[in-house]
Amino acid sequence: MKFEEYKKPSWAVMNMRAVFGRAYPRIIGVNRELSWVFFETVLPLLGVAAYVFVYKALEAPPEYIGYVIIGGAMTAYWMNVLWSMAAQMYWEKEMGNLELYLIAPISRMSVLGGMALGGMFSSSVRALSTIVVGMVIFGISLSLPDPLMFFGIFIFTMIALYGMGMMFASLYMLWGREAWHMSSLFTEPIYLVSGFYFPVKGFTAMLGNPGTWIAVGASIIPITLGLDGMRQCLYPGTMDGFIPVWQELIILVGLSVLFMILAKYSLRYMENLGKREGRLTMRWQ
Amino acid sequence: MAMNLGFRRKAAKPNANVQTFKWSAWLGWQMESNWADPFLFAVYSIVKPIAASLILVVMYQIIALLGGGTDVGLFYYMFVSNAFFMYVGQVLFGVAQIVHDDREHYQTIRYIYISPSNYFAYMLGRSVSKLIITTFAVAITMAFGVFMLDVPLSIIGANWLLFFAVMVIGIFCIMAFGLALAGLSFLTAKHQGGMNEGIAGLFYLFCGVVFPVSVLPSWGVSFAKILPITYWLELIRRSLNLGVGMDSALAGTSTSACIIILCLSTVVFTILALAIFKAGDTVARKKGLIDTTTAY
Amino acid sequence: MTRYAVEVKNLNRTFVTKAVRGKSKKETVKALNDVNLTINEGELFGLLGPNGAGKTTLIKILCTLLLPTSGEARVLGHDVQKETNAIRQKINMVSGGETSGYGLLTVRENIWLFSQLYGIPSKEANRRIDMLMKELGLEHKKNSKVRTLSTGLRQKANMVRGFMTDPALIFLDEPTLGLDVNASRLIRDFIKNWMKEKPGRTVLLTTHYMMEADELCDRVAIINDGKVLACDTPENLKRLIHQEAVLKLEIRQIDSISAFENLPGVRNFTHVQDMAAGITKLKFILDDESAVADIVAAVPKSGSRILTVQKTEPTLEDVFVTLVGRSLTNHEI
User: Fold this and answer.
1) Contact criterion met (CB < 8 Å) for C102 and B295
2) CATH code given to domain C245-312
3) Has residue B85 been placed in a domain?
4) Phi first, then psi: what are they for A33, rounded to 5°?
5) What is the pLDDT of residues A20-61, one digit of tens each?
6) Nearest-Cα residue of chain C relative to residue A14
7) B13 in a domain, yes or no?
8) CB–CB of A58 and B199 under 8 A?
């Protein structure tokens, strides 16, 4: 059994390999277990369509249907962050993989990054299919006069969102079912305050100043401003934007940096806490 | 020489299914509740359903402020249907989830499956905790609507006999759907999020939950009319006298007709669900999938 | 000077379990109690003890999965609390009954995935995987999905995963747990060959199979209730308990036993004549193993023939029972 020596990779190369290694099961999984195509793309469209029909029943202006479609598309990424990245650490612990990741000489963010990258394919398919259905079946028309701004908003929303997801993942490393239930608890409230199905400016219209503060508070969740910015890009001239798009972009860049830093320290802190309390590899908590 | 281990010979129990139901109900309750202290659990049980309802409230209010078509009866329609739809989302998914939970998470399915306990009784018992928690959530949501949003639920004006009868039939029907999903779960990978959203989405779209069925295209209306949940929700609304008459597609169907259709379609879907469950179980056993793991 | 692969000084680890309302009170469990231990580089070191003795807790601390409550531990010269990344570059771990991996992937893909966590180039990783699979008789399953493997094959795959990174120190936590005789033997042989190939490699093996520790380990530590009760080579541990090695022979009946008297290395011997069977039964209490050769040589000199031979000697189980006060098979949890 003669192993050949190889040149020790740099920290960056090692972690990059870890990212792709962890992404691999996700990428292969979507090819081998094709039932996801139906469960992850066709069926979730039905929920989005329901909200479209709510607006139709309420005789809402046509752009509101577009808002629902965009919100429905972004749900794919939110669910990926919440359940396929953050909660995945819980599943990795239950499967016995977490300890193997933890004793490997790589950053925990690489493992999480791999999960995110692997999940991004199915999320993007889901998001795109939502948009396509929206355009074909519900006849929404989207325009993109400033694609650079749109993609800037989208990319920094993703970075900030996945950074936030990594931060949540640190909780899952330590907690058990509490973290799972917390994710479940936050699903609907986040849909509400982040304006997945309506513009967050609506809070101001409904409640005045307190409504504005609700929207401000919700802006800490990257998807709030991300959705608002993308809607403004796709419906230029709309009066339903919360703040100007360029301001939203700056805030999202800031949130990206903030959440990545918080994720790093949170993962380190939670890991150490777990090692102190002996809960890092404890199953069925 | 036979070893005497001191076990007493017990007579066979005629109510074994009741025993299975009892211990599986206890197990289901433990799984749902023992992850948190009671206060946190109560917060969780209250905040979640109210937030879900508030999404619709905000949507309605925004359009009202914009001057859209906002008959307040429509709001009551949306609110009450959305509240009771939680049974569909939670109980149906709860039943379907049992297989994935036991198979992938706790990996106990093989031991339960090969035991003499009746698996149906086991699933029914495990579902009971979901039913209790959902009932609590629905009650909280309705109370929120009545006290905070002026939903005019009248104790005297409601037909409680009809309400409770329809609830029993509806829950039975929902659990039957859950059983069908559970049968499919034997054969599918662990796509919990997708299954939850997807199947609930089907009913959410076609059963007149947050908008009248008449808003759908004609083929959608036809499809809605074969789903028992459509009639269940319509009967709930009629029994509570909230949002009645908002749906022109069902306004012409009398209450008795709705009850008959609900009962008949429940029977048909129950038979179908049992067949699907049996088929799923058999195929899974043939392919050795009962205790497989599919997480990635 | 021999470098220590593992150095543990006054190590303690306490767990506090949460109370369950109405069912149980808060409990404090001392899993490791003032443990002192050193393992030399190149050693195959065994840690023997019943369930709950603290073996896995110690391994988790050394693997950097758990922090000690107090005391110090160093792995390959690095502190487990402060230099975790340096340690992780050089270690790996395989547990008995391990169910890690992803059911949808093939065996080879699963192991490749874990190789990437160590930055091994794919080409070299695949080469190592193929080599180790061949060694462990797993080649025919390399393209099978992990979820289709039997327990024994799964454990072999785990072994490939663990050894593929060529760790300077590998932790084997009950690696043959639940495996059949052939699979266990194959794994033990594999471990022995692994050690022989490269002198610097160190293995820390935990087990409660005495025979396994006896066969494989250069030194064994016996641990119980978080304390190390003894630590030495298997032979020295057996000598600790002053139990004699006994050689029993049945030979064709002889009249004179003078050939067996005063043999060097024999402390005492007795004999019994079985007239009916035409057998002389001899029992020798040995001071020295080398006496066996002289005893056997004396049989033809006495004009007889050996019919049966039986040698009994103290086992590690005897050592354990003496030190712990009970056997591994009937301890109370």
Assistant:
1) yes
2) 3.30.70.100
3) yes
4) -120, 80
5) 999 998 888 777 777 777 777 787 788 889 999 999 988 899
6) C119
7) no
8) no
Domains of chain B: total: 1
Q: Cβ–Cβ of A53/B210 closer than 8 Å? A: yes
Chain C residue numbers touching A278 (CB-CB < 8 A): 13, 15, 66
Interchain CB distance below 8 Å, C119 and A8: yes
pTM reported for the whole predicted model: 0.79
Sequence-distant (≥ 6) Cβ neighbours of residue C141 within 8 angstroms: C107, C133, C149, C153, C157
Q: Which residues pair with C272 in a beta bridge?
A: C281
* B-interface mutation test, from A24, A53, A97, A186, most B Cβ less than 10 A away: A53
Distance CA B56, CA A282 (A): 40
Nearest C-alpha in C relative to B288: C148
What does each C-alpha distance from B13 to B10, B16, B18, B19, C38 come to in angstroms?
A: 8, 6, 10, 9, 59
Domain ranges of chain C: 4-233, 245-312
Q: How many CB atoms lie within 10 A of CB A189?
A: 17
CATH superfamily, region C4-233: P-loop containing nucleotide triphosphate hydrolases (3.40.50.300)
Query: Are C4-233 and C245-312 equal in CATH topology?
Result: no
* C146 → chain B, closest CA residue: B293
Tens-digit pLDDT profile for residues B146-185: 999 889 998 888 999 999 999 999 998 998 888 888 888 8
B28-51 pLDDT, tens digit per residue, is: 887 777 666 667 777 777 788 888
* CA-based nearest distance A2→chain B, Å: 32
The predicted pLDDT at position C76 comes to 95
Tally Cβ neighbours within 10 Å of residue A16.
18
Residues of B in contact with A188 (CB under 8 A): 48, 51-52, 55
Of C187, C126, C195, the C-alpha closest to C153 is: C187
Q: What is the pLDDT of residues B45-91, one digit of tens each?
A: 778 888 888 888 888 888 888 776 568 888 999 999 999 999 988 88
CB atoms within 10 A of CB A272: 15
In chain B, the residue whose alpha carbon lies closest to the alpha carbon of A87 is B193
Q: Which residue type, as a one-letter code, is found at position B154?
A: S
Smallest CA–CA distance, residue C146 to chain B, in Å, is: 10
Q: Is residue B253 part of a domain?
A: yes
Our CA-based measurement puts residue A271 at a distance from the nearest CA of chain B, in whole angstroms, of 21
**Record: contact B296-C105, CB cut-off 8 A:** yes
Q: Do C147 and B296 lie within an 8 Å CB cutoff?
A: no
Q: For residue B175, what are the domain limits?
A: 19-287
